[in-house]
Amino acid sequence: MTTETSSPAEELVTKVLLAGVGASEISNVYLGHTLGLYRTLADIGPASSIELAEASGCDERYVREWLQAQAVTGFVAVEGTDPATASFTLAEGGREVFVDELSPFYLAPLSQAIAGVGAVLERLAAAFRTGEGVPYSAYPGGVSAQAALNRPAFANELIPAWLPAIPGLTERLDGGARVADFGCGSGWSSVELAKAYPKITVSGYDADAASIAAARANAQAAGVSGRVTFHEHDLAQPVQGSYDVIFLFECVHDFGYPQKVLSTARGALAGGGAVIVMDEATDETLVSPTDDPVQRFFANVSPLWCLPQGRDKPDMDPVGTVMRPSQLQALATASGFGSSRILDIEHPFFRFYQLNA
């Protein structure tokens, strides 16, 4: 712990130690998420380590050690002081955070994304020396983790909160707009749009083949595949047709050619149409240091995830996770949009923009 007399080195040591604690805790979340320990405990708890091991199909000794770590961290509540005989339950709120895939608080897949980063760290170190990228496909579990992290926001906020806050947009969608979802990933945004507005058609575009395959399966399962089509397509190249509304949900900062993608959107925009961009709610300028965990996450995930994934080819120039409003608006102007504005939608992680011809 730091005190008023702590040296700079001591204070820095504390920061690094706390980062190590966080890394070990998120690694244990990965185990609980991947092995189904959280879900099983939520279903059968209270449970001893023996009972949880039997129900989950895992080794009791490992489960006991994991439960002890979870209890010390506060992710699991415990009755008793001996891990071998104690009774464990998920902490209050644990089902929402670790189990319920549609909960707005669901964050267990973050551990899957962090594990994916760990798997490519050596390749990232090599990329730092060569300047090459590390493709999205190289990150184990990257597609499913990113889809799972974004899905709750699309399921809980897109239709009731975000879209009604954009003047004139819901009326256009109610009337049967032609909609494009650029950078659609696994398609959850497209699915929610089609479910909410039965008159629209949605065309989803993404360059990642695994994401498009998942999107098609998700649309089929949701019963909207007749009005939602997905295309494996490099958005640096033009698309066929024109659209009344084009969405880019949390993807502009990832693109290797962000200006070309926005130019594609500008070229595909029908008269009177609008482009809606959702991207990270970054600070407007560099703040150093900061205690804001959201800004710290954006800054640290960029060299690990977004920047290397966007440098797949030598001439790519992604913005990275920390895309400030001035950068997005400069890209919009360079791409031929006549106006861009920040929309009045408050969110701790996302900022919304409207681009018009």
Q: Would you write up a description of this structure?
A:
The chain starts with 7 loop residues before the first helix and ends with a strand. Helix content is 48%, strand content 15%. The chain has a 7-stranded mixed β-sheet with strand order 5-4-3-6-7-9-8, sandwiched between helices. Strands 1-2 form a two-stranded antiparallel ribbon. It contains 14 helices and 9 strands. It folds into 2 domains: 8-96, Orthogonal Bundle (Arc Repressor Mutant, subunit A), CATH 1.10.10; 150-356, 3-Layer(aba) Sandwich (Rossmann fold). The protein has helices at 8-34, 37-44, 49-56, 60-73, 94-98, 109-119, 121-130, 142-162, 169-174, 188-196, 209-222, 258-268, 293-309, 325-334, and strands at residues 76-79, 87-90, 178-182, 201-206, 228-232, 243-249, 269-280, 339-342, 350-356. The longest helix has 27 residues, at 8-34. Keywords: Methyltransferase, Transferase.
**CA distance, first residue to last residue:** 55 Å
- Would you identify the CATH architecture of the largest domain? 3-Layer(aba) Sandwich
Largest β sheet strand count, sense and barrel closure: 7 strands, mixed
CATH topology of the largest domain: Rossmann fold
Please compute the radius of gyration using only Cα atoms.
22 Å
The shape is globular
Briefly note the structural class of the backbone. Answer: alpha/beta
User: What percentage of the residues does DSSP assign to strands (E)?
Assistant: 15-25%
GO molecular function: methyltransferase activity
Protein name: SAM-dependent methyltransferase
Organism: Rhizocola hellebori
InterPro entries: Methyltranfer_dom (IPR025714), SAM-binding_MTase (IPR053173), SAM-dependent_MTases_sf (IPR029063), WH-like_DNA-bd_sf (IPR036388), WHD_Rv2258c (IPR048711)
